[in-house]
Specification:
Length: 227
């Protein structure tokens, strides 16, 4: 058994620690792993013979993503949701699956009257697909008025470095100029700001940790008094 086969087997039946150790050991011998091949085995329901089957592993799939597996590779995302459900699909989305790959599957399921699949992809989209990490301190949330884009869309941009929120409404008809409104954190909903901060951290961002951001309140600085 070569290193790749060993990684595939442990991705399917092993633990995250197994996957990590095999990857480290193989790299010491300059072995070039195909992490996307291993991802196939970790995120699918497979059956080799009665008594030896796997329903997918969130643990090893997450480890493969940490090592560099591509969540957008081939049809792994669609098959992972089909075989293993929403939890596996959310893991793909959390590690950088492009928004369009989620929304396309959602629309396809709706057109083909696959109600369960539609609800699964919609749940993944609502929790992850509509968010984009712009940089370490900025999160963009896109709210599509209609799923096909015909109603335009609202982008909400949370800038934690500046302590501001921008709402940008983009019309479906490109002839119209976008409508932009800016708010300070103090003027915006506290719950929305705190939820955005949590989501930015979950997706790998690093917003400033200070009382202003956490509470949604402005920092009050007293002017210097003359001696």
């Amino acid at each position: 058994m070569n290193w790749q086969s060993l990684l595939n087997a442990k991705s399917c039946f092993g633990t995250a620690e197994d996957v990590k150790k095999i990857h480290q050991a193989g790299r010491q011998y300059d072995f070039s792993f195909n992490l996307n091949e291993a991802l196939y085995w970790s995120s699918r329901a497979v059956s080799f013979y009665p008594g030896l089957k796997s329903s997918g592993s969130l643990e090893t799939t997450e480890q493969l993503f940490k090592l560099g597996a591509d969540p957008a590779y081939s049809d792994n995302f669609y098959r992972a949701v089909e075989d293993c459900g929403v939890g596996m699909g959310k893991l793909f989305a959390r590690f950088g699956l492009p928004e369009y790959m989620i929304s396309n599957q959602m629309q396809n399921a709706k057109k083909n009257n696959k109600a369960l699949q539609y609800r699964q992809f919609r749940e993944i989209y609502w929790e992850y697909g509509r968010y984009k990490v712009v940089d370490q301190t900025t999160l963009a949330e896109t709210k599509t008025i209609d799923e096909d884009g015909s109603g335009g869309r609202l982008k909400v941009i949370f800038n934690f470095a500046a302590g501001r929120v921008s709402e940008v409404y983009e019309w479906y008809n490109k002839a119209h100029q976008p409508v932009v409104r800016d708010f300070s954190f103090d003027d915006y909903g506290k719950t929305a700001v705190e939820n955005a901060r949590k989501k930015l951290i979950e997706l790998g961002g690093n917003p400033p940790d200070n009382p202003w951001v956490l509470s949604g309140k402005k920092i009050s600085i007293s002017p210097l008094k003359p001696d």
